[in-house]
Amino acid sequence: MDTTTALVALPASTPATACPALSLAHAALHRREVAVGASLTVLAGRLWITLHGDPDDHFVAAGQGWTATRAGRCVIQGDADGAAASLWRWTA
């Protein structure tokens, strides 16, 4: 499964809990254009994240977060770490 979404700007006053939780099966991909400061929190499983122009790849596990240090195309892959799927929420 490969999904691509455009950046959706939420008002600064929008609580993180108002953002829907997203599920990604193991090895499935999600693509999104992100702005500097876009962030997510992993609720279950683990994600592999790469951001265009960032030389590092990031593995983010349940209970951890990640924040974009630059704007660009972000690719997220489900790396469920034994779970059926990874679950996460965009928080900014």
Would you kindly provide a written description of the structure presented here, covering whatever features stand out?
By secondary structure, the protein is an all-beta fold. The strands form two sheets. A five-stranded mixed sheet has the order 1-3-8-5-6, with no helix packed on it. It has no helices and nine strands. A hairpin with a 5-residue loop joins strand 5 and strand 6. The two termini are 24 Å apart.
Please provide a brief summary of the model.
The protein has strands at 2-5, 21-25, 29-34, 39-44, 46-51, 57-61, 65-67, 72-78, 85-90. By secondary structure, the chain is mainly β.
Topology:
Blueprint: E1 2-5, E2 21-25, E3 29-34, E4 39-44, E5 46-51, E6 57-61, E7 65-67, E8 72-78, E9 85-90
Parallel strand pairs: 1-3
Antiparallel strand pairs: 2-9, 3-8, 4-7, 4-9, 5-6, 5-8
**Number of distinct helices:** 0
Strand content: over 45%
Query: Between the first and last Cα atoms, what is the distance in angstroms?
Result: 24 Å
Structural class of the helix and strand makeup?
A: mainly beta
Sheet with the most strands: spatial strand order: 1-3-8-5-6
Features:
mainly beta, five-stranded mixed sheet, four-stranded antiparallel sheet, 0% helix, 92 residues
